[in-house]
């Protein structure tokens, strides 16, 4: 799949890193908007049509978490967080605020490019303008998922989901009545190998439940099967 027209935002106050990422992205024919501070990045977000953002957590003026939060107020395009910290709380914070993925510094530029492509594939897939087909619509128990328009409603109220959240919910709903393991869910959504200490799925499930207004102790839709995975059986 080609992404010749994709506009990528990269913001990192470490200029050498931002410049290196820009080179690799441009080599893949992406259009790059590069900034070394948060304020200029926010201005770009408001004035340009972006397809994906790569945000460093630590910035001199506005941290990446705040930028991610502001993006999610009006936009659905994927967000990848860059963090130099190993603390799990930073990764959890980013995912909870609506980030779709995170990469810990130091990283291989080719790995970041691969993650960018993976997020764009998912985003493009769920925002296609093809005519609606029956297999692209799931509806049951007040929950409606439209894979073509990337729209989700619960009891006729729209849910604002990120591409990753929509993808997780689609996989679970498509396998209604069957337990989907964390490994399978991670592979289906992220397309990568799952590691047992990876809590990415758990964080996204928790955020998804919050948006759905689920009771954590007694969820109506997404249920946890301890030691196995998750399922929707309504």
Q: What does this entry look like structurally?
A:
- The protein is an alpha/beta fold and about 230 residues long.
- The protein has two domains: about 5-125, 3-Layer(aba) Sandwich (Rossmann fold), CATH 3.40.50; about 135-230, Arc Repressor Mutant, subunit A (Orthogonal Bundle).
- The protein has eight helices and twelve strands.
- The protein has helices at about 15-25, 40-45, 65-75, 90-95, 110-125, 165-175, 180-190, 200-210; strands at about 5-10, 30-35, 50-55, 80-85, 100-105, 135-140, 145, 150-155, 155-160, 180, 220-225, 230.
- The chain has a five-stranded parallel β-sheet, with helices on both faces.
- Strand 7 and strand 8 form a beta hairpin.
- Helix 1 crosses helix 5 (about 110-125), helix 6 packs across helix 7 and helix 6 (about 165-175) packs across helix 8.
- The protein starts with 6 loop residues before the first strand and ends with a strand.
């Amino acid at each position: 799949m080609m992404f010749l027209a994709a506009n990528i935002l990269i913001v990192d106050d470490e200029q050498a890193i931002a410049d290196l990422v820009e080179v690799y992205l441009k080599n893949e024919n992406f259009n790059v908007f590069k900034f070394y501070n948060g304020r200029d990045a926010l201005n770009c977000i408001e004035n340009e049509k972006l397809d994906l953002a790569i945000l460093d957590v630590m910035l001199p003026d506005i941290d990446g978490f705040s930028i991610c939060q502001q993006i999610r107020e009006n936009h659905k395009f994927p967000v990848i967080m860059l963090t130099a910290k190993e603390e799990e709380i930073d990764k959890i914070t980013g995912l909870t605020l609506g980030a779709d993925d995170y990469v810990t510094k130091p990283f291989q530029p080719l790995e970041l490019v691969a993650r960018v492509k993976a997020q764009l594939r998912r985003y493009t897939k769920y925002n296609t303008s093809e005519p609606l087909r029956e297999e692209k619509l799931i509806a049951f128990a007040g929950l409606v998922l439209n894979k073509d328009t990337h729209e989700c409603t619960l009891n006729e109220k729209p849910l604002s989901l990120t591409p990753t959240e929509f993808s997780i919910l689609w996989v679970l709903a498509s396998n209604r009545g069957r337990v989907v393991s964390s490994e399978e869910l991670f592979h289906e959504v992220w397309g990568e190998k799952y590691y047992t200490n990876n809590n990415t799925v758990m964080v996204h499930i928790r955020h998804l439940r919050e948006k759905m207004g689920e009771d954590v102790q007694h969820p109506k839709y997404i249920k946890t099967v301890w030691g196995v995975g998750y399922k929707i059986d309504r």
